[in-house]
Amino acid sequence: MARLILFSLRNAPWVLRCAYAVTVALFVWICVQFYLPGKGFTYLVMFGGKVSERYIPALKEINHYEEEDSTGYDAQYYAQIAMRPWLSNRALKAAVDSMPYRARRILFCWTAYGLAGGDAAWALHIYAVQNIVCWFLLAGLLLHWFPATNWGNFFRWFGVMFSFGLCFSVRGSLVDGPSLLLISLGMILAERGRSWWAAGVLGLAGLGKETNIIAGATLAPADWRNRRGWLRGVAQGILVVAPLAIWMLVLKLWLGSGGDAGARNFSLPFVGYFHKWIETMAVFKTDDAGSIGVWSALMMISLTAQCLFFVLRPRWNEAWWRAGIGYAVLLTVLGDAVWEGYPGAASRVLLPMTLAFNILVPRGRAWWVLLLLGNLTVFFSSETLKPPGRESFRVEGPRELRMVEATGRTLEAVFSEQEWYLPERSRFDYWRWSRGPADVVLRNPHPFTVQADIAFDLKSNDERKVIVRTTGAGEAVLWSGETVHTLRGVELKGVRLPPGETIWRFDTDKPAQFPSNGDPRKVAFSLRNMEIRVLAKAPELTTIPANK
User: Which of 47-61, 68-82, 93-107, 511-525 has the least mean pLDDT?
Assistant: First the structure.
C-alpha cells in the first residue's frame, strides 16, 4: 500500500499532490469532530435511546452515545454482536432485531472482536472506527486506478471517496465502506492475474455483506466463448459463494429462520426504483420540499446515469464492466426498504457500481457531463458527516466577567432536556430544536449584575409566531416575530442579567409538528447560534423618589 501511494505521488505535480493531501486532511478534520470525550467515536454507531433498555448488559456498562428519541440504525446491532459474538446468547438475541439476518454480515463483527482480543469495550470502539480506517486504506488503494497524474483522476477519486454512499457508511459505522475495500483488493488481484486469490478475497467479502459476491462476476472469462475459461470461472465462482453459503447453513441450523427480515430489500424489476421517483416528485409538490427532495433527486439521477452507462455501453472483455453490470442489474430489483427515506440507502448498496463507473468512463472532454452526472452525490454528502452537537451557546467578553475565578463557575445558558432536544451542529452552525414552548435559564454567577448583548437565530419548518419574554417579577416581552424557513436573526442589546437565574420563555402559537424530512421528532422551532457578549458590570438602577 505504501509503495503504491509513493509511486503514485512521487512524480505528480505539486498542485495535484496538494489536492489529494488536502482532501485526506479534510477527512481527518471531519473525523476528529466525531470524537466525544469519555464516549469515543460511539456517536457514529447511531444507538437509539428509545430501545436502550433492550441493549446487552456489556453495552449498558460502557459510556456510549445514544440518540435521544430515536430507534437507532443498523450498526447498533452489528456493534453489539461484535462485543459478544455468541449468537445464541439470550440477551444478544433480545437486543438484535433479527439475529439470523444480521449475523449473515458477521465479518466486520469478527474483525472488531478479534482486534479487541475479546474485550467487549474495545470491540465496541474498534467497530465504531473500522469505517474510518477502511476509508484511509481505500483512499490509498484507489490510487492504483486514479494516480495523481491529472485532474480527471483526482475528480474520479474524489467522486468515490466523498460519494454519499461511502460517507454515510462512515457516518453510520456500516458494512458498505469496508466491503468496498475488500472488493477493490479482490479486483486488483484479478487484474494482476491472481484470480484464485481474488476469488478468496471476494468470498471473504461475502461474509461482510451478501451483495459483495456480485463482484465475483469479474472472474468470468474476458472472452465469453472461452470454454476452458468458463470452467475455471465457475470453479472460482463457487469459491466466492462458498463462505457465505456455508455460513448461512450454519446460521440456519444454529438459529433457525430469520423470518421475513430483509424481505423488503428486493422487489420485482424497477418497482422500488419507480416508487422512489414517485416519492421524490411528491416531495417537490409540497411547500416544504427543501433539501430532502433535491438530495433524493440528485441521488436518483446519479445512479440512473451509472446504470445506463453499463447497459448502453457493453464491454464484456473489461473486468470492471462485468462487475459493474451485476450491480446495475441489482439496482433494478432493489426493494422499497433500500430506496425509501431521504435520500435512501441505495447509493451505499451500489457503491461498487459507483467505483466501476468512475474507473470505466472514458477520458476526454466529451465524457465530462456523464462523469459529473454520475457523481452528483458529492454535492450533498457532507451533510451526512455533520459532527455531534456539543454547544448550545457561546459566551464572549472579558474573562473576569465570563467567570468567577475563585469558584470556576461561568455565565451560562441552561436548556431543559424536557423542553429542548439535544444540541446539533453543522460545520458552521449549532442549534437546538424545541419540543414546543420552552425556557432558557441564563445564570450569572457574579454577585453583581452584568450587561450583555445577546444574539441568536430562529428557524422553523412552518409559519409560526415566536415570542421571547422574561418571566417572574417584572415580566416583559423582549422580542416577537414570525419564523420562516430561512433564518430570522434576533439581537437584543444591553440586556441586564442580575445575579442568579434569569428565565427567558420562548412561546409559540402552534404545537410541535412532524417535519416532512422523515425526522421522527415533533419539533416547533430551532434556536440557533446563541451568543452572549458580556460587555461590562451593569450600572446600578436609580429610582426617583416620589414627590411628597
Answer: 511-525
Report the pLDDT averaged over residues 332-342.
Answer: 88
Residue 266 C-alpha cell reads as: 428486493
Give 548's pLDDT tier (boundaries 50, 70, 90): very low
Return d(Cα 289, Cα 347) in angstroms, integer: 21
Please report how the helices 290-312 and 319-333 are oriented relative to each other, as an axis angle in degrees rounded to 10.
130
Residues 58 and 9 in one domain: yes
Per-residue model confidence as pLDDT tens digits over 4-42: 555 556 666 788 888 999 999 999 999 998 998 888 999
Same domain? 157 vs 293: yes
What are the residues whose beta carbons fall under 8 Å from the beta carbon of 322, sequence distance 6 or more?
Answer: 217, 218, 220, 316
H helices of 143-194, where? 151-161, 164-171, 176-191
Are 449 and 499 in contact, with CB atoms under 8 Å apart?
yes
- Of 46, 51, 126, which is closest to residue 95 (Cα–Cα)? 51
DSSP assignment letter at 539 = P
| Contacts of residue 231, Cβ cutoff 8 Å, sequence gap at least 6 | none
Average pLDDT value for residue range 308-333: 95
Q: How many CB atoms lie within 10 A of CB 169?
A: 26
Report the alpha-carbon distance of residue 459 to residue 80 in Å, rounded.
37
Q: Which residues contact 129 (CB under 8 A, 6 or more apart)?
A: 41, 44
Residue 135: per-residue pLDDT: 97
Q: Pick 119 or 67 by higher pLDDT.
A: 119
Of 385, 415, 430, the position where a domain reaches its end is 385
Give the H/E segment covering residue 504: strand 500-508
Range of the domain at 522: 393-537
Is the domain of 421 the same as that of 346? no
Task: Give the mean model confidence (pLDDT) for residues 150-174.
Answer: 95
Question: Which residues are CB-neighbours of 482 under 8 A, at least 6 positions away?
Answer: 463, 464, 465, 466, 488
Q: Are the C-beta atoms of 248 and 209 separated by less than 8 Å?
A: no
91-99 long-range contacts (CB < 8 A, ≥24 apart) are 91/56, 91/57, 92/56, 94/54, 95/54, 95/55, 95/56, 95/59, 97/261, 98/258, 98/259, 98/261, 98/262, 99/255, 99/258
DSSP string of 90-125, one letter each residue: HHHHHHSS-HHHHGGG-HHHHHHHHHTTT-HHHHHH
Burial of 22 (0-12, 13-18, 19+ CB in 10 A): exposed
Mean local confidence (pLDDT), 157-161? 97
The answer as to whether 544 is a domain residue is no
Report the pLDDT averaged over residues 412-420: 89
Distance CA 173, CA 40 (A): 13
Residue 542 within a domain: no
How many domains would you assign to the chain?
Answer: 2
CB 203 within 8 A of CB 241: yes
Q: Of 10, 83, 2, whose CA–CA distance to 42 is shortest?
A: 83
Retrieve residue 255's grid coordinates. 438459529
